[in-house]
Design a protein that fits this description.
Blueprint: H1 3-9, E1 23-28, H2 41-44, H3 48-54, E2 61-64, H4 82-91, H5 98-108, H6 115-121, E3 129-135, H7 144-156, E4 161-168, H8 178-194, E5 198-206, H9 219-231, E6 236-238, H10 241-248, E7 262-264, E8 280-283, H11 292-299, E9 315-320, E10 332-334, H12 343-349, E11 354-359, H13 360-363, H14 365-369, E12 383-388, H15 404-417, E13 422-427, H16 429-434, H17 439-463, E14 466-471, E15 507-512, E16 520-522, H18 534-541, E17 555-557
Parallel strand pairs: 1-13, 1-14, 3-4, 3-8, 4-5, 6-7, 8-9, 9-10, 11-12, 11-13
Antiparallel strand pairs: 2-15, 5-7, 14-15, 16-17
Bound molecules: 2-phosphoglyceric acid and manganese (II) ion (MN) (2 copies).
2-phosphoglyceric acid (2PG) binds near residues 30, 172 and 431.
Amino acid sequence: MGSSDRNLWKLEDHPKLPKGKPVAVVVLDGWGEASPDPYNCIHVADTPTMDSLKKGAPEKWRLIKAHGTAVGLPSDDDMGNSEVGHNALGAGRIYAQGAKLVDLALASGKIYEGEGFKYIQECFKNGTLHLIGLLSDGGVHSRLDQLQLLLKGSAEHGAKRIRIHFLTDGRDVVDGSSVGFVETLENDLRQLREKGVDAQIASGGGRMYVTMDRYENDWDVVKRGWDAQVLGEAPYKFKSAIEAVKKLREDPKANDQYLPPFVIVDENGKPVGPIVDGDAVVTFNFRADRMVMLAKALEYEDFDKFDRVRFPKIRYAGMLQYDGELKLPSHFLVSPPEIQRTSGEYLVHNSIRTFACSETVKFGHVTFFWNGNRSGYFNPELEEYVEIPSDIGIPFNVQPKMKALEIAEKARDAILSRKYDQVRVNIPNGDMVGHTGDVKATIIGCKAADEAVKTILDTVEQVGGIYVVTADHGNAEDMAKRNKSGQPLVGKDGNVQILTSHTLRPVPIAIGGPGLLPSVRFRKDIQEAGLANVAATVMNFHGFEAPSDYEPTLIEVADN
Ligand SMILES: O=C(O)[C@@H](CO)OP(=O)(O)O
Ligand SMILES: [Mn+2]
Ligand SMILES: [Mn+2]
């Protein structure tokens, strides 16, 4: 590192706050703040630790925004999510995120002028364009209206044969809504066919069971998708996608998130759209985590995660580039947000030693997303990232405690080892159990998360450290769909409609610990603060001022 590099990365000393205090940064996934209510699982659950932190308001506890424009999403109607949430927490600035960047590229038509589209366009003359991704208007991983525009635009730019391989949602949108989304898509495809484009749905399956695994938790999920999308093989075969989804949903236990894989076949029982040599493939999700594994399978010549049987010679582009370090995929339609100079990178340049940990399903959140969608370490000598293997094949409502305790114990050991200045964890329960829609299980999950926080705070107490406890977005605090006046909506079956998705709610942030000067308190002059203000705050606790272009710190040091 040259001296100019060193200057670039050097953080100013904080004028009042000391260095050398161990800092625990705890992110509760899916833990928003909402009024007491039977569908507020955090309220119903026994959460003494988080409740006691709240008593520190307004000086040591406050709310911050975790959705919409505060985290770089297109509008304030967009709920928060882990990608944008952890990006903001780690980067300390607000970046226009994938959802927004794709909107802009589609609106201006620039998407069709870029390298990525030109690359796949080469296949349009003789090959098929395959579009693979999540079919919903949830706006977390993808958006239906973007798919619709891309379909239309691709046809206008020469695609003559198009096949869609969709994943049903039920996680960012209400369970059962898959049918309506397929109907909308079928309608668009019919219009394209009327214009002479051979456009059809070729395969499908539920996002949690087919294709959209993440952080290499379970490659079988990706394999099931590969078999249907590439090989044209699946346990279920249907003549139409609407029939497929309706039939598969007749099973009383069926759930959009977990629909089994199926392929669409013609009158002779032949799959209508396997992926073959000479085809183009676009994965139309803008969000990275749940596309990285498929991207590897589609792009890497050397690949040993499962037997691909056939590795077609295709031209593949992601909607975005999903991994900035691996440069994966190498072709993409829209450039990802350029998240640079994240707090993690600054801190290693200033000799801060970091330990980060979660279980597999959230591991990349406190590492990859935290570091601006970048895999790997900045400096392996100063960082240690520990992944606790998640349970595989067990729904999280069956094991709602997940690995909360194990994560807390790893954090405890890391703090007690005195080898780290920052110990950062993600506690997944509120989110992962919340997404199952199982209220009782979510309550158990929230209690487990609270106990994990207690273990970490007790350890901070023991070593004279500082803690920051916050969350990335809401989920468990509201499990009911509501009307405009906030009353739970009742479905045709007479039951309250369950909300499996994230929310628009703000999240708490609490600070404290024996290492925090008693005169440190939340400022009152930034009411509109959001997740992006946390990074500067954490830097202060390490004894540094944040870079001047970071969103301002949440704290001040009182004079008295
Ligand atoms: O599971 C996921 O992929 C999303 C919801 O679509 O949740 P989170 O943003 O909390 O990871
Ligand atoms: Mn999350
Ligand atoms: Mn979630």
